[in-house]
Amino acid sequence: MAIHISTDDVQRIQASVSQRRSLYNALVCLMLALAVYALYMTLGSYQGQPLLPLDDAYIHFQYARSIATGQPYAYNPGLPPTSGATSFLYPYLLALGYLIGFTGLNLAWWATGIGLLALAASGWLIYRLSREFAPEGVSWLMSLVFILSGEFIWHAVSGMETALVVMLTLLTLYATVRRDVRLTAVAGMLLALMRPEGGMLAVIAAAVVLYQAMQTIPVQNRFGIPRLWLWRREWLLLLLPLLALGVQPLVNFLITGTAVASGNAAKSLFGMIPFDLGVIVGRLWDNFSRMWLQLSGLRAAREPGYYAPLLFVPALIGLFAVFRWRRFAALVLAVWLLVGFAAISTLDTAFWHFKRYQMPLIVLLYPLAGWGIAYVLRRLPRSARLINLLAWVTLLLFVPLSTLQFVVHYRTNTGYVAAQPLQMAHWLRENTSEGSVIAVHDVGMMRYMGGRTTVDMVGLTTPGAADYWRNGPGSVGEFLEQVRPDYIASYGVGHGLGLGYLENTDLYAEALVRYPVTLDPTSNVALAAETQGIFVPNWSAAEQAPYPVTTNLVTPYLANMQMIETLDVADLESERRHDYLWRSPLPLGGFPTEYNQFDSLGCMVLLGTACELMDGGRHINGEEAFTLHLTAGQAAILVTRVHAANPGEIDVYVGDTLIDTRLIPALPGSWLEIPTLLPAEFVTETTRIRIIPRTAGDYMPYMHWVYQGTATVSTFVDAPLGTFQDGAIAIYDPGVGYEVTEGGDYRLLPEWAWSTDGRATGNLKMFVHVLDADGQIVTQSDMYPGAGALPPENWIAGSFRERITLEFSQPPPGRYTIVMGLYDAVTITPLMPVGGDEFGRLVIGEITVE
Questions:
Q1: Is 694 helix (H, G, I), strand (E, B) or coil?
Q2: Which has more confidence, 514 or 354?
Q3: Is the distance from CB of 746 to CB of 740 less than 8 angstroms?
Q4: DSSP 484-533
Q5: Considering Cα of 749, then 835, then 832, then 811, what sign does the dihedral take?
Q6: Are 484 and 469 within 8 A, CB to CB?
Q7: Do 446 and 425 contact (CB within 8 A), yes or no?
Q8: Is there a contact between 312 and 323 (Cβ–Cβ < 8 Å)?
Q9: Are β-strands 49-50 and 453-456 bridged in parallel, bridged antiparallel, or unpaired?
Q10: Checking phi first, is residue 484 left (phi over 0); if not, alpha (psi -120 to 50) or beta?
């Protein structure tokens, strides 16, 4: 008896078999995900509690706790909200776990549980995607290979949102391939809410699905778009990904006042300082090309264990094949890969954390490779068994090695987190008061488990700090001066030169505890350097920094004058107030800014002690310009503090008018103050100053002050002792005092007055020699005038008194002559004064030792 089976019956049977196979795959994916999850979490635990390998995960945890406790976006309770979490949706998912009891370190169970489910769902989605064009065996192979790939397991249990982004990317692709309008809309919306770069992928997919749907309407215009009255309501759902893309910027703007997440501001190459489009384009291309080279296996990644490049050639074949089978799906994939990698290339962090940002694109190789293998099998049916066997053996041989390698990476990095950030967080909780403010570099664990108010030096979670971080250690130091934290818990010298500048100052005055770790450079992604410590700052050296020191000690220039304006270079707020602009067309000899602690020239000579100041400043090799708000028509004195590391000259302009040229001598490791007279006729209510350096290296300004008032002018009745430079420099009122110690040592105290009509010039040093009766030098001093701080080129018309000290140890009895003179600091050629001898010397006094 014949049994009639209809076409509908066959389709129902096939659908039932397909559903059962799909369910089997889902169960296998879940079981495998559970197995690798148990392996990773067991090895990554700390004293029975789960520990995650990235400090960034604990940034999400802190935001989640804030949401759960009713203070969304407040990283530090009671302080203004911030936008440090670049994922909009993920902190809310974590907050749900916090609310149901996963608190403290145990929130990691909830976070990694989400990652586990996302890993299993992604494996199943790869199976489903592969089945669109590939046979059952190939689809199973791709699914299993993914589940066992160490890089994806690592991200699933990292505590970050990466596994969810991978899953939603695959779900959006699945909906696009199936031309499912509603699923594309929902999956794309969730993808956009999970990561901002995911929003771009979602909008591309929605646009393609909408266009495909439009092709089913018979009445169309010449662009293939139907008349508006024929549009279907469900097509409006495809606006959801586009709307979702704007949710996070809108919420950020409403809550924090800025649409850009602070995390993005801290990471984007477009925030590079100085902004150099050529350099940025070069970095973008380097990132973009490096991604493709590593994806194809033509260039090795820093960390061992990536086997995704094995899929690259099959994936290329798959992209070609799907273009033939379903053109628009291939278009989505090609545009995703190009646009996605281009977007990630804009990040300074493009390769951080085992390619965390690239994973949602790398995962596309798996369904593509499945389609590529299927295409080859169809083209070479006689070799199908051999190709299948080769694919299974190759992939299942190498992929478990990836799993084991990333187990090592996971255990290594959780160990680093346990050894540094976790211990530092415990120390802060146990040894500091609840009201303490802690400046930190790794802000996640130390805020979440440390329980203290944090200042994020990098700027992910502290408003405005990202701009200072981008500008370099000098601006970071200025920022810390503003907020005055009680403690600094951070890296120092080992963190390249950047934070090393800070550790070399009193910002890191007292080290309370240090946490050294030996890092494996091929595995480490958790820490930025081998040593972190907790330090107590000493702000004394910053207290005097806002005021000039040497100019007041050495000269009467500023007597009876008032400070009108202060521009603190590298302090971004101060720079904005003065419309500060700087330009460096040549590569800088270091960071854009530096932070240093030096002695002010002249202090040791005049006071016998150092005047140490710590301050931040810039590296400039082009020009700096700023606006001063002054009393119009009244002369002013501009005083500039520089680090005199690189010798040369600076031209000081008011607008386009050259006012004067000033000298920077080679005095590295010292603060030099440069006074410049701004004549009354050039001073307006908004005086624009321009300074153009001509130095052997970068010009390094740290502070500008401007004074106005009645200048003190000294006059002399007697004729000068001698003159230099055709009367431009004159010596008046010389004298030599002395003191005698109980041990018979003499301390000579020669002094005199320098005077200039404003024409003094040159890189000139002075010498003071003590000559015995035979004309031999028995002691001497050589330095710049003004106690070592004021070369003649930097003098202002008027006079100032020079006082120095010469130690004369137990001189034999006799008559001694004290002489002085000037010489070129570079050629050592003496200047010949009027009234001097043939050696260029002027006699300023004599003493007799009995």
A1: strand
A2: 514
A3: yes
A4: --SEEEEE-TTSTTHHHHHHTSGGG-EEEEEEE----TTT--S-SSSEEE
A5: negative
A6: no
A7: yes
A8: no
A9: unpaired
A10: left
SS3 for 17-33 is HHHHHHHHHHHHHHHHH
Query: SS3 of 849, please?
Result: strand
pLDDT for position 25: 86
For residues 622 and 587, is the Cβ–Cβ distance under 8 A? no
| pLDDT of the residue at 536 | 97
Instruction: Tell how far CA 127 is from the center of its chain.
Output: 41
Highest mean pLDDT range out of 244-248, 350-354, 508-512? Answer: 508-512
The C-alpha atoms of residue 609 and residue 114 are separated, in whole angstroms, by 62
CB neighbours (10 Å) of residue 807? 11
Do the beta carbons of residue 152 and residue 160 sit within 8 Å?
Answer: no
> For residues 176 and 258, which has the higher predicted lDDT (pLDDT)?
176
DSSP class of 720: P
Kind and range of the H or E element at 466?
A: helix 465-470
Residues paired with 531 in a beta bridge = 516
Q: Which positions ≥6 away from 202 have C-beta within 8 Å?
A: 172, 187, 188, 189, 191, 192, 241, 244, 245
pLDDT in tens, 10-60: 455 555 556 788 888 889 999 999 999 998 988 888 888 899 999 999 999
**pLDDT tens column, 127-160:** 999 998 888 888 988 898 899 888 999 999 999 9
Residue written as token pair 């996640």: 444
Is residue 534 within 8 Å of residue 779, measured between CB atoms?
no
Highest mean pLDDT: which of 82-86, 313-317, 615-619, 811-815? 615-619
Q: Among all chains, which residue has been given the structure tokens 């800088």?
A: 588
Range with the poorest average pLDDT among 230-234, 338-342, 439-443, 767-771: 230-234
